[in-house]
Amino acid sequence: MRDLFTIALIWSTVRLATPLILAALGGLFSERSGIINIALEGKMLAGAFTAAAVTYAADSKLHLGAASPWIGLLAGMSAGIFIAAIYAIVCIRYKADQVVSGTAINILMIGVPGFLSGALFLSSGSTPQIPKEQLIPWAPIIIAFAMVPITWYVLYRTPFGLRLRSVGENPEAADAAGVSVSRIRYSGVLIAGALAGMGGAYLSIGQSSLFTRNMTSGRGFIALAALIFGKWRPVQTLLACLLFGFTEAVSIQMQGAIKLPAFFATLLRQTPGDDIPVQFIQMVPYLLTIIVLAGFIGSSRPPRALGIPYQKEK
User: DSSP letters along 234-276, please?
Assistant: First the structure.
């Protein structure tokens, strides 16, 4: 077990936490304004697919060279903003149920990338491989960690942050003070789309070299759990994301390193001393998510107006 805790584990934790940090900080802007961000998963999927497809096209078709991954990253963010705009219009203008709308977007984005990939690349399972030199592994990591103090400063030291928090806590009072509730909420949701789209882009053109179907594997929901665990505060949310990243990194390192005790081997019809099945180890981050949500969602106080559509008095 001692061999598990190495510099490689720390680096793996940082890499695995990066998309969570970006998505969770994006969710923080949205939820602080009063809009539940169940749709983080869908925004990440949109960003991941678009970034991979655009980076491949920019490199192989347009021959843009070193600019290709940057164009892909911006395209991934734009895709996240586009999905966020749809979500914002549905929830803010038409006042639809935010949980149902976010779930619908998540379901939609499980299928749409595969359909588009099949139409564009004749493969619904994945996009073509991107050359290693066209990947962008460092920039999103730097941006993710830099966004933590930036988010803190924006929330607590700027007029926009004050308006964002006031709209999430008491939209009626904010409206009476001359703050446009709808405009602030649109801004929060669109910022969430940009950051979640970047998180998705990092998965496909930073951690990996292509988009595969449903490659986020629930990371949007884990980011939401980290946001709740962090009590809607930037630094605490960062620490929660690092915890989840560390758990996933350890689960990867544990594969093949831990043997089945005799009792569990008998239950699983395995030979004592065999490796623990990979599926059980891969469950660890998701079990932690369930435990965190079950244990902390009651003790964390969300913004008072979270999930409540605002109807301006006439």
Answer: HHHHHHHHHHHHHHHHHHHHHTTTSBPPHHHHHHTT--TTPBP
Into how many domains does the chain fold? 1
CATH number for 6: 1.10.3470
- For residue 126, the cross-strand partners are 212
Tokens (6 digits) for 69: 């991954």
- The answer to whether the CB of 88 falls within 8 A of the CB of 80 is no
Tell whether 167 is covered by a domain: yes
| Packing angle of the helix pair 284-296, 234-254 (nearest 10 deg) | 150
DSSP letters along 36-90, please? --TTHHHHHHHHHHHHHHHHHHHHHTS--GGGHHHHHHHHHHHHHHHHHHHHHII
| Cβ–Cβ < 8 Å for 50, 75 | yes
Is 146 contained in some domain? Answer: yes
Instruction: At 94, give phi and psi (nearest 5°).
Output: -100, 0
Model pTM?
0.91
Minimal CA–CA distance to 58: which of 218, 205, 251, 227? 205
Q: Is residue 209 part of a domain?
A: yes
* Model pLDDT, residue 134: 86
307: in domain: no
pLDDT (tens digit, 9 = 90+) per residue, 91-147?
A: 999 999 999 999 999 999 999 999 999 999 988 889 999 998 889 989 999 999 999
Please give the pLDDT value at position 220: 95
User: What DSSP designation does 300 have?
Assistant: S
Q: CA 101 to CA 115: how far, in whole Å?
A: 21
Other C-beta atoms lying within 10 Å of the C-beta of residue 95: 12
Q: What is the residue range of 222's domain? A: 2-296
Q: What does 139-196 look like in DSSP terms, one character per residue?
A: HHHHHHHHHHHHHHHHHHHSHHHHHHHHHHH-HHHHHHTT--HHHHHHHHHHHHHHHH
